[in-house]
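Convert to structure. Protein one:
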Amino acid sequence: MTPSALLARLRDWSSRPVVGIAVIVVAVGLAWANTWNAPFVFDDTSSIVENRSIRDLASWSCLNPPHGAGETVSGRPVLNFTFALNYALGGLEVRGYHLANILIHVLAGLALFGIVRRTPVAGQRDAGFALVVALTWLLHPLQTEAVTYVVQRAESLMGLFCFLTLYGFVRATAAGDPAAPPSVAQRRAWLALSFLACLLGMGTKEVMAPVPVLVLCYDRAFWAGSFAAAWRLRRDYYLGLASTWLVLAALVATTGGDRGGTFRLAGLENWGAYWLTQFKAVVTYLGLAFWPSPQVFEYGTFWIQDGRTVLPHALLVFALGFAAMLALWRSPAWGFLGLWFFGLLAPSSVPPGTIQMLVEHRMYLPLAAVVVAVAAALRAGLRRWALPPWIGAALAAVVILSLGSASFARNRVYASEVSLWGDTVAKRPNNPRARYNLGAALAKAGRTTEAEREFQRTLALQPNHAFAHFELGKAALVSERWAEAASRFAAALQADPHYVDARVNLAQALARQGRSEEAVAQLRQALAEQPAADIRAALAGLLIQQGRPAEAAPLLQEALAQDPDLPEAHYHWARLRERAGDPVAAERELRAAVRLRPDYTAATMALGNLIARQGRFAEGIELFRLVLATEPGNHQARNNLANCFLALGRFTEAIGEYERILQAQPDNAAVRRNLEIARAMRAQR
C-alpha cells in the first residue's frame, strides 16, 4: 500500500468521531500511565490532605473551602467540591485523585477536538487536523503540572469548563454543523450548557474571567462576522455569560480580595517589578511550548527591577501583542488565537503576584492557541509547497509521539517528593523555597542528616526563612539540644511573629531547660492568637508540672469540649484525676488517650505505672512492652518492666532487663541494686 493510499484510509478513519475519541483516551492513558501512585505534594497537603471541608459531601462545607493564605481551593467552591467527591469515594487514596485529573484532561482534549473539528478555517473543516491539534495539546509536557500535580486540577478543570463554554456555543450555531443546523430547542439547550460551564468555571479558578469576551470574539471571527452582528443575534446569551463575573467577584471577595495575599494591588512598585518578570515569563512559556526543556516545578520568587535586563523579552512580547491586535481586525481567525493566548495569561500575569512569578501550569489553556497556530501554519506551508500529504502526517506522528514520550519521562519526576524537589533544586539551586521543600521531603523520608543540610542551605539563601528555622528547631528538639531548639524557634518567630507552631515548640524547649514561666508565657500568647484545643492541653500540662492544677483544670475542660478526641487532653486530665485520688477515672482517661493514639508512649507509660502501683503487674508488663516496642531506648520503661517481673517472681526475665539497662547506663546505681536483689532472690529459690 502506497503512503498516499494509507493516508487516505487513515483520513477516512480519523473523520469518525469515535475513532478520534478512542485515540485520545489511549494516548493520554499511556502518557500518564506512570503517575497513579505519585504522592500528594506541596499544596496538596493543605488543600486536600488537611482540608476538613472536603470530608463531608452531604454538608454545605464542601462548597465553603478554607480561606487561609494562599490555599489553592480558597474562593473556588467547584474545585473543592470535586475533591470532596474524591474523598467520599476513596478517602485520601491518591490514585482516585489522579484518575479524576486524567479524566478531566481527556475531557478537555475531547472538547478542544470538537471545537477545532467544527470550526471553519478558510471555509474548511478537517477532522484529521482537529485530532492532530488535540493530541499535540494533550500530550505536550507543559501539561504535566496541571494534570499530575493533583491540586492543579484547578487549572485543568477550569480549562475543561472554558472549552465546554465555547463548545456549547459552537454547537448552538449553524457553524457547528451547517448540514444539520440545530433546532430552536437544541440551540437553547447548547447555549444553556455553555452558560452553565462558564458559571462552573468561574467557581473553579479566576483565570476563567476572560472567557465571555473570548466567546464573543470567536463569534465575530468565525460566525457573525462583526461584533455588532454577534451582539444583535445573541445579546441575552452574552449578558448571561457576563453575569457570571458577579459570581467570580463575590468569590474573590471571600479571599480578602487578594487570594490570601498571593497578589497585591496596592503600590505601583509592585506592578512595575512584577510586569518586568512577566516579560521573561511569557517568553519562557513560548520557549517551552516549542522545546519543553528544562521544565521546573517551582521557579521561585524573583523580582526584576531593571527593565534593561528584560528588554529583548519585552520587545518580543510587545511585537506579538501588537500583531495579535492588528490581526483582530485584518485577520480575525489569527487575531482570535492571539487574544486567546494573551487573554488567558492576563489574569495571572497582570495583577502583581507575591510568590509565584512563573508557573508552567498557567500555559494549560494558552498552549492551545500556540498549537493551533503552528499546526495551521505548517499545513498551509505544506500545501503551498505542494508536498505530498503523507509528509505532513508523518511529521505530525513524529511530533505527537515525541511529546507523549517526553510527558511520560517528565511524569517520572513526580514519583516521590524527594525526586520532584531534587529535580527542582538541580535546575534552580538558588531557590530557597525548593531547597526547603527538598529538606522537608528528605525529613519525611527519614533522611535526617540530608534534610538538615538542605535547611541550612535554605537559610544561606534566605536567612529569615521561618519554616527552615522551625524544622532545624524540631531536629534539635528530637536530639534533646534544648538551647539550640529554643534559638531556632525564636528565629522562626522573629521571621514570622504569628507562627503559632513555632511559639508552641519554643515553649516546649524552654520548659525542657527549666524556664517554665517563660514557657507558660509563650503558650498563653499562642493561645491568644489561636485558641486551639491542643494548645490549651499543652498549657494545662505545663501548669500541672508547676503544681498549679486549679489553673489547668478549666483549660482541660475547654479542650475536651472543643475536641473530645484529643489524646493529650485525656492524658493531662488523667494526671489531675490521679492527683485528686481518683485512680478509676485516671485509668479511664489514660485508656482513652492510648486508644485515640496507640503510639502515645507517655500515656501508655503512665497507664502502666498506675496499674503496677495497684499490684496488677501482668497488665503492667504488657503496657511497658508496648512502650519499648515504640521506644527501645526508654530505660525507665525497661526498669519498670523489670520491676514487674521481679514482683511476679520471674527473676531471670527481671535480671535480663536490668542487665540491658546497665549495658547502656553502667553507672546507674539504682538499677544495679535491683539487679543484685533479683539475683539474690533467684539464688534463694
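Protein two, convert as well:
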Amino acid sequence: MSNAKWTQLWLEYHKVEDITKPFAIVIDGFKKENRIIKSLICELKTGLEKMTGAKCTEEEKTTDGAYVVNIRKKEDLAKEGYRISKNGLSINVDSSDENGALYGVFEFLRTIALKKFDENFEKKCVPDNPLRMMDHWDNMDGTIERGYSGNSFFFVNNEIIVDDRTRDYARFLASVGINGVVINNVNVKQCASLMITDRYFDKLKELSDVFADYGISMYMSLNFASPIEIGNMDNCDPLNEDVIAWWKKKCKEVFEALPNLGGFLVKADSEGRPGPFTYGRTQADGANMLADIVKDYGKIIIWRCFVYNCTQDWRDTKTDRARAGYDHFKGQDGQYHDNVILQIKNGPMDFQIREPVSPLLGGLKETNQMLEVQIAQEYTGHQIDLCYLIPMFKEVLEFKTYCQKENDTVADVISGKAFGNKNCGIAAVINTGNDLNWTGNDLAAANFYGFGRLAFDMSLSSEEIAREWTMLTFCADEKTTDVIVDMLLRSREIYEKYTCPLGIGWMVTPQTHYGPSVDGYEYSRWGTYHRADHLGLGVDRSSSGTGYAMQYYKENADMYNDPSTCPEELLLFFHHIPYTWKLKDGRTLIQYIYDTHFAGEEEAEEIAANWKKLEGKVPEGTFNTVSHRFEMQIYNAKEWRDQVNSYFYRKSGIPDEKNRPIY
C-alpha cells in the first residue's frame, strides 16, 4: 500500500462559505476533561475551521461578536438524544449525556455542510435503536472474510494495529451515530481465540480506548470452543461445571483488563462452528451460561441465530434451510436471560438481493432481538457492482409482522417499542478495508453512511440519506448531486433484474459468491437450489411443500401460502411456478426472466454512462476508480443476462417473444 493518505469520506469538511465572525465553544455542565467531550471539541474546531475559514476557540463564557456554540447538559433529554438550535449568533447543543452531545455536534456540522447554516433552526432527535453496531469479519492474519476493500486495518500478521486510521474510523462511526463495534470475524479462527488472553490485552485496551473516546463500546467475537482450543479441556459443554468455572476465570481476566469491552458476539452450531448442540444442549443453554458470567460485569452476549445444517440432504423436498432459524429458536422464546440478545439476519437465508423478512423477527415476543443486515456486498456485487442497499433495509424495517395489533413492524420490534426491550437494536456487517477510499468502490460508502443514519433515525428516507451522503462527500452542484442520487436509488433494482428473478436467490458462483452460476448453490446435495425442471422453477414453501410459509403470523402466512396473493417479487421463493404462469402485467414467467435480464444489463450500461458525464465534477481519483468498477459491472451484467437466459431457455424450450439473441 502506498504512503498516500486515506480519504475522509463524508467528513472531508469541504469549504462551503466564508464566515468572518469567529466561533467560541462554551462547555456548560459537562467536564471538559471527559474523553468524549475532548473528542467533541476537537471535531468541532476541525469542522468549523475547514468549512467556514473562521477561527474557533474555547471560552469559559459567552464572547461578544462571535458565534457561540454552547454545549449544554440538560437532564430532560433522553439518553443519547440531543436538541440543537440556532438563533442569531447563538447555537445551542443540548443533551443529557456525552454521547448525545457528540451526536448533536455532528448534526450541527452536517447542517453547515449541507449549507443550511444561515437559517435559524431547531432539531430534536433521540436514537431509535438502543444498540447501533458494526460487525467486522476481520481475521487476525489481516484478511477479511467477504472483504472487498483490501485487508484489515485492525490486524496485520496476527498483531493488533492502533494508529491514526483507527481514530479516523472511530470518528466516521460516531458521526453517523454508531455506538458499538465488533472488531473480529464471527468465524473465530485459532489465533483469534487468543484475543482473550494476556498476549493481546494491552493492544486491545488501547484500541478500546480509541473507540471509547467517541462513545463506542468495543465487542469481540468469541469462540465457543475456547475451553478446548486455549484451555486444554476436552469439551466445551455449557452445563459442565468445569467449563463454567473456566469461563468465569477467563471473563474475570478479560473484563478487568478491558473495562470498555461491551461483551461478546457468538456464532455457534453453524457452518462447522462448535456449539451447545454438540452436547445435546439448547442454544439457550449456551447463551445463558455465558450471559450469567458476564452479567456481573454489566456486559451482554449477542447470540447469532444463523444456525443451520449445511450438510442437509436436498433429496428430501421437505428439507429447507429457510426453516432452520425459526425451528431452532422459536420454541425457546422466553428462555433467554435479560442480557442475551438474539441477532437475527433480515431474511431466513443469507443476505440475498431479495428475501422475505425472517419470521423470527416478531415471532419471538419474550426475547431480546437485534436485526442483522450486511453492507459488505457478499451476494450483491462485491462492491464492484453498484448496489445501494438502504431501500432494502427500509423495506425490512417497515414490514408488518402482525405480532400484535399495533407497533408490529420490524422497526418496532428491534427498537424495543413493540415489547419494551432495552437490549435490542440493529447491526451491519461492515464493508470497510484498508483501501485508501475505505470501501473499494467510492460509491459503496453510501451504504456505510446510510446504515448508520438509518440505525439512528429509521424515519429517514432512502433518498434523504443518499442526498445527504452525496452532498457531504462531493460538495457537488445540484445537477451532479441529482445524477449520483438517481444512480444510487436505481441500483438495487438494476442489480436484481440482471441477477435473480422474483426472489429465487443464489445462482452465484459457489464459495466466491460473485458472478453467475445458475446451479451453483454450494450446499446442495441433489438437483439445484432453485429446483428448476422443464416445467417451471421455484421452491415450494407453502403448506403443501416445506411449510416455511406457515412460520409467519396468519396474515402473512395466508398471503405467502397462495401464489395468487404472494407478492410477485417473492413468488419463486415461496412457490414452484410453471414457465407459462401469467404475471400481473400479462407476461409469462419465462418472458419476465428474459425481459428483466436484458433490461438490467441495459440499465447498468445507462448508469455507467451517466457516471462518465461527471468527469471533472468529482475528484479524478474517485472518477477513475468508479469508472473501472462500472466496466466490471457491465461485464458481470452481460454474463448474468446470457447465462441465466440461456439456462432457462434450454430448460423450458420456450423462445423469447422478442427474438433477441439468447446464447
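The two ends are 41 Å apart (CA to CA). The CA atoms of residues 15 and 51 lie 4 Å apart.
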